[in-house]
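Here comes an entry:

___
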Amino acid sequence: MENVHLALEEDDLYSGYNDYNPTFDSDALENDVGFQQAVRTSHGRRPPMTAKFPGTAIGARPLASSFGSRIPLTSSMGRPMTGAVQDGAARPMTAVRAAGYTSSMTRGSTFDPLGQSKGPAPPLETKNEDTPEEKIKSLEKKVNDLIEESCMAQSMGTLLLALEKAKEAGRKERALVRQRQQSGYADQINLDLTYSVLLNLANQYANNDMYPEALNSYQVIVKNKMFNNAGRLKVNMANIYFKQKNYPKAIKFYRMALDQISNAHKGMRIKILQNIGVVFIRMGQYSDAITSFEHIMSESPNVKTGFNLILCYYAISVKERMKTAFQKLISVPLGIDDEDKYIPTNDDASSNMVIEAIKNDKLHQMERDLCVDTLKSSQYVELANDLEINKAITYIRQKDFNQAVETLKTFEKKDSRVKSAAATNLSFLYFLEKDFDQADRYADLAMTADRYNPAALINKGSTVFVKQDYEKAAEFYKEALRNDSSCTEALYNLGLSYKKLNRLEEALDCFLKLHAILRNSAQVMYQLAHLYELLEDPQQAIEWLMQVISVIPTDPQTLAKLGELHDGEGDKSQAFHYYDESFRYFPSNIDVIEWLGAYYIETQFCENAIQYFERATHIQPTQVKWQLMVASCYRRSGNYQRALETYKDIHRKFPENVECLRFLVRLCTDMGLKEVQDYATKLKKVEKMKEIRRVKSGREGSARGRREGREGSAGSAGDSTRGERLSAKMRSLPASNEPYEASSPKELDASYVDPLGPQMERPKTGAKKRVEDDDFADEELGDDLLPE
């Protein structure tokens, strides 16, 4: 407690806070001579400081320099002096220089710490190509180029040129080796390059039938122990001996190559064994050939080896072994579906010719009828009927409908199950050919034979559907679903029937159930989107269309529909995005083209709209309105000369178009052209001719016109929603008081169009089929039914 002092009442607790050292007083700096001299000097350089304050290491000693005696410099305020000149004495030197400044710098010198004022940097030193390293690199590049040129010449069939390039590469490579040895780089020889040169030279010799030279080159590679896996080239040497008909030597080298190839390279070993077998056949040693071929058929069977094995057994007259070999041959997988091997492809003309030639040859006839005839004469007659049905379906796959119909008609007098299956497929074929009466007849025949056949019920419902009896069609589809609850075709067609009957909630329920089964079906999702649009729920429609886009992102109709829905919601930017994407994938949709052109005009970018209306002009060259819109865009963007030329061109093509003549008169007047009187005269004549025609037609059929007008207005009221949005957009464009814009001859039709075309609204039939549609080219319809 003795160190604790209590404050007295008269003591001021806040005293002393306003006291400060006079050294830091800045009010008197204007009268401080030393400070003012320091300010006026260049960069405020300071004179040496004196130790005014006690306790410093400098003490009170004055500083001295070579420019003067020891002079203590202090300010009037007791502050250390700055670097000003004191009483005429020169500024003392210091031991530290600031970055970028030197003692030789004078007033007005430029701050240049990087030395940029010295001019541009000297150019880079050129690479000396005379060094040994550069010569070696240059030679290596030349050798590689020559090898590549040799291979290219061989691929183009110029074998002599390929050989010359290979020889030149060999000479260059030998020069490269000598260059390395002379430069002291003998230990850096590129073995891969030497191997490539020798191998290419040997191959070119062999291609030019210079077999001794080729063998010598291969021998050089094989005997060099520094080349890894060179023993494989003995296969090439064996091939040369085979061409020379030196079969013992060929066998020897094939076996030597086989010994040097490990079991890991199974494919290579099989090919060598196959060659050995072929050589034994040429030598007439069929037993040795059989040994090789049997080993191959047990390890990796293939058609060529199996056929050769049968020939060997035939040569030694072992019939039982021939049968065994034939069974092995026909069990070899061909890598192609039996049903598709006679279906021609579109991209290979030569293969198509071969398929067409063998489609009905004797072997194919045996293949087609042997199994069926054998089964018909056995106790398994039902299997023969199934094979006949499958044969008819194969004809359908090959689009040979006449043969399919003939095959199926043979079942009309068979038992009920087979008759129902055949009649179902016949009904489907006639439905595809739009012979709906025959389709209905065979659908009834299939139902009579088997009432529980869901495919027959679907076909019957489809024939009723196309006759617009949707209630009856729905009943058939529901009966098919009662017989087979997993029948997706029946559920899809039932949804279409409900939609046609305007029972939208029931249709929505059908397609939601179908979506749970077929999760990635674009058709189902599109139908759901359309139903939500009809139910006036555009947000849900947009969501479903987005799912369609996730499955088929390049479908232009779906993209255009998304643009239409976003436009209806007032989201112009999204609408523009989807319309632009639709135009990118299908630039011939007039509705999309017109919307994009109108959008650019509405946003005052008329020059961007020109390209769309010009495309519309190419698509519909007889429609004058597109050409008028092109001219109007030029005029709106201020390009009056191009607008005038366009209107003149329109007038040449459509001399009686009143709107074109009116704009020509207006433009010629504004531009002060002499042609205005000529166009004005033509305009009066055309207007007078049209007035005469109007009066004449009015006298002849005014009553009929009034009646048709009333009917037309009633009909247009019913269809008013089809083109409202785009037509309103075109009518609301700037300067709509102009003749063309005010009285468009045709309103735009923005009605709903299914991306699948008419087939989206057509019911699915119950036969096995694959629908190819333009808009869903890569999309297959739901699981098609096979007759039971």
Summary: The radius of gyration is 48 Å.
